[in-house]
Amino acid sequence: MKFMKLIPLLCIQLLLFSCSAQTASSRAPQTTLITASQIQQQWLLVGIDDQPVNTRINSTLAVSTANKATGNLACNYFFGTLQIDNNRLKIDKMGSTRKMCAPPINEVESIVAAILSDWSKVQINDQGMTLIGQAHRLHYKAQQ
């Protein structure tokens, strides 16, 4: 008989627990996965580590609908295949020309090449695309 009196109490506790679990999960931030189609356009590098890039440096990234990536690191041209997974990207099998570059341009080129050739976190918003590598952060604007 005592057990029968506990059943409604257990049901109420179970109901309250399930409601609180649902509320907690609905508060978790929603992460939208970035798709290759969002990156398939022409991009211009405008910032490194929140500092503007010299306007004489023309570092670009273009991604085709077939996920072929091409562009200019800062001095040398590059090519490869875009890989994207869980909001991270890299240019797979990246190759490039090998011209000698002036020191400030060469520094930008090294940073860009390192971030594009390794898995980097990617964020896209109205201001552009940001690639976050292990040591640096690149900010790109979409070209019209």
Task: Describe the structure concisely.
With 144 residues, the protein is α+β, with helices and mostly antiparallel strands. It is built from 3 helices and 9 strands; from the N terminus they run ααββββββαβββ.
Describe the overall structure.
The protein is of the alpha+beta class and 144 residues long. The chain has 3 helices and 9 strands. The longest helix is centred in the N-terminal third of the chain and has 25 residues, at 2-26.
Low-confidence stretches: 20-29
Strand count = 9
* Major sheet characteristics: 8 strands, antiparallel, barrel
Our count of helices gives 3
Average pLDDT number: 86
Radius of gyration, in Å, reads 24 Å
- Strand order within the widest beta sheet: 1-3-4-5-6-7-8-9
What spatial form do the alpha-carbon principal axes imply?
Answer: globular
SSE sequence, one letter per element: HHEEEEEEHEEE
How much of the sequence lies in strands comes to 35-45%
Rounded to the nearest angstrom, the distance between the terminal CA atoms is: 77 Å
Structural class: alpha+beta
Q: What is the helix content?
A: 25-40%
